[in-house]
User: What shape does this take?
Amino acid sequence: MKNNIKYLAILALGLFACEPEFDNPIDESGAYTSGSADFSTFVAVGNSLTAGYMDGTVFRSGQQNSFPNIMAEKFALVGGGTFTQPSFEDDVNDAGGFLLQGSPLPGFGTRLVIDASEGGPENLNVTSTVEVSNLQQTAYNNMGVPGAKSFHLGAPGYGNIENLAFGAANPYFVRHATSPNITVIEDATSLNPTFFTLWIGNNDILSYATSGGVGVDRTGDPNVLGYGGNDITDPGVFAFTYQGLVDALTANGAKGVVATLPDVTSIPYFTTVPYNPVPMDAGTAAFVNNAYATYNGGLQFAAGNGLITAAEAAQRTITFAAGQNPVVIVDEDLTNLSGFGIPSYRMSTVNDLLILPSSGFIGTQADPNDPSSVNGVGIPLADNWVLTADEIQLVRNARTAYNNAIIAIATEKDLAIADMAATLEVLVSGLRTADGQIYTNNYFDGSSNAISTAVFSLDGVHPNSRGYAIVANEFIRVINEKYGSDVPGVTAGYYPGVTVVPTN
Amino acid sequence: MKKLLLVLTIAFSASVMYAGGYRVGVQGHKQLAMGHTGVAVVTSAESAFFNPAGLVYLDGKLNVSLGAAAVLSNTSYQNREFGYSSEADNPVGTPFYAYGAYKINDWLSAGIAIYTPYGSRVEWPTDWEGSHLVNNIELSAIFVQPTIAIKISDKLSVGGGPIYVTGAVNFNRNLSRSLTDENGVRSNVTIDASGINAWGYSVGAMFRPTEDFTLGFNYRSRIDMDVERGDGTADFENLPAALAPGFADGDFTASLPLPAELTFGASFKPSEKWLVAFDYTRTFWDAYQSLDVQFFNSAGLSRNPRAYKNSSIYKIGAQYEATQKVTVRAGFYFDESPIRDGFFAPETPRPDSVNFTAGFSYNLNSKWAIDASVLYVHSNEIQNSYDYFEEAGQRLSFAGEYKSNALVAGIGVSYKL
Assistant: This one.
């Protein structure tokens, strides 16, 4: 009895000093409101940006920080249900990439990491364990399919493994399509979403740009079956497709948010390598100039004979000087003088964009035994390394048309619109979050600060986890504004950035 | 009785204490029950802490007081903007005291005081939102104070003595807001040091103009707990392989001030059975400007500005001799936070508090008495932030609402010969 009283006393003490309660505790139901939106079944439709793709692939831990998954964690406070994503349980090395029938699938390498011993990004040196033919046949809340263009979302057979061989299927969708000829949008709507995000169209211009403009601008050509992988999608096709996607997602009255498309040419993939990356001393410059003397003389001959204008001759003249120099490029938009033995060369200008992989190519020698065969100097860069000013204009024209369609369709359906064009540009140019940190895309400056502040992943196209947190915050802000909800945001600084390994 | 001694022995071995902040006011159950007043009170050997000058006015040749308490404390944190909520579920703290006073002759008394006025034990969930500031911390310090008191006249006495402190610290936090190893486990560091020694002193004076009225003054000096090279260990865990070589385990240096405290107060007896006391304490927290930890690897110097300000405690208490056997006590004090806005770090989440105390003594016989007290610490919820965490050269803010409370309950024994 005496003991009982003692324990009762201890128990009473424990109860008395229990957790201090706030006047307005946020962990009680009803602390936040969903406004006029219903977040119970949230489905995210899109491409790599929705899938949580970063560092050149989707890998297990990175996928956890896809922007819709981050949003879903917060939606849980306002009635949001479970949010499922395609399974990457078989990614035992946390490396992403793909195997097909046990062999590495070309073009789908492991994730990029910074190799501290080399100082640059490299594919993580492990074998992918993610098998494409391991079919999950499940519709997931995250229906972001890396690489998908707008019209792919409604394309039957895009998830059919039989179509992989001739490029009509996507290994990401193959892994989770519920049946071989189902479409992405059909699997998405099968979940009966009450709320959705739709962010699609980036790849309709991006692959043209990242390939250095080797594709074709298909504006005015609605026959998508004739398109190559690096072509620019016809804006008419885009608008028609987009209308169909939005109609399907809103058929049951779902609310949602659509996202505009960023200017792809502002991403680090195009802005990291300057137009004049070649350092040179006066002696080398004189040597190189001498090598181009014949070409420059040919231009004067052509101009003198009225084959090209004096302005074009000046534009094409190759002159190196001591200091930082532009590279020599092949530009097929120049007047074709090949009949006279004069190739279409010029030096890059501030209006051209050298793609990120060129940083590992410029300066190397085409022939290891020939010091005059330096790529970008003695050997001009081919079209695929450079997005020229003319090509940039084609990309911008298409983007403007796409965004006009997105805004018009969303406005007509009374959907929220997230200005991801602006948000992604801010990720590139730098931003200061409310907690005081400044984030940038500067992950190659070599400082330890970059580990804490870089928001772009090493592929130069996609944000990293931290960047996706900022993307998620912007979606949440727009949703709250449109639907009167007060879904809380996230702290970008809590999310990981670049991965550094000692050796690779 | 044997059982009780056993309990006390166990409590002695666990010398860790509670504080919101790291001052713990549990230095005697008689005085704690009276709102922790005591600078102008003479009831027991507890005076060795509250005012050494009072020892010469004690009845009896030998006075001993021993006691310990259990501290149950909790702090809740939430941030509405981000939907974060967390609770620090702090392990039970056990402050204790042991005082003895011996009357050598009519004008001189000698004594010894062992007590634990500073300490902290805060345990947030590992990797919580503020884990870059603290995951858990445990500070403890035991004060040992040989004391003498001299009666100058029947109305005036002085007393004091040197203080020897032995302290320990264990502090874990994550290295940054996002850094992990290859398996996603957050990179963190634990600093640990014990047997840190330092010296200080306590002096007091007591003036008793009449039988029923007493004035008292006590000053306890600032003591800096300095961790020198080789005193402790810094254990870096879960760094990614690329960074691990720069963050080798090693030692560290640091300094934590235990601030000076000045108390003056008065007590009077409105009637034979009543005693009322008032104390005012000024704590010179401005000694705590920054918690700087110097590592001897890539972590370098970790600067954690604190910029505490001096603060006051206003105390009132009373006791009533209900029967020959039973004396009951009650009190109240208001404890001002030393923390400025923008410096509210979750490792010492101490807002202003109002404190209610109560207790009693039960005289077993003419020599032995049992003392018991309870203290309830209440703080209003506050919105505050710590704005001085540096990441990549930028100062970052960690903000939210905090609410804390604590309950202290303890028992002790007094002996008088």
About this structure: Residues 2-416 of chain B form a domain with the Porin fold (CATH 2.40.160.60). Residues 212 and 235 of chain B are 58 Å apart (CA to CA). The mean pLDDT of chain B is 91.
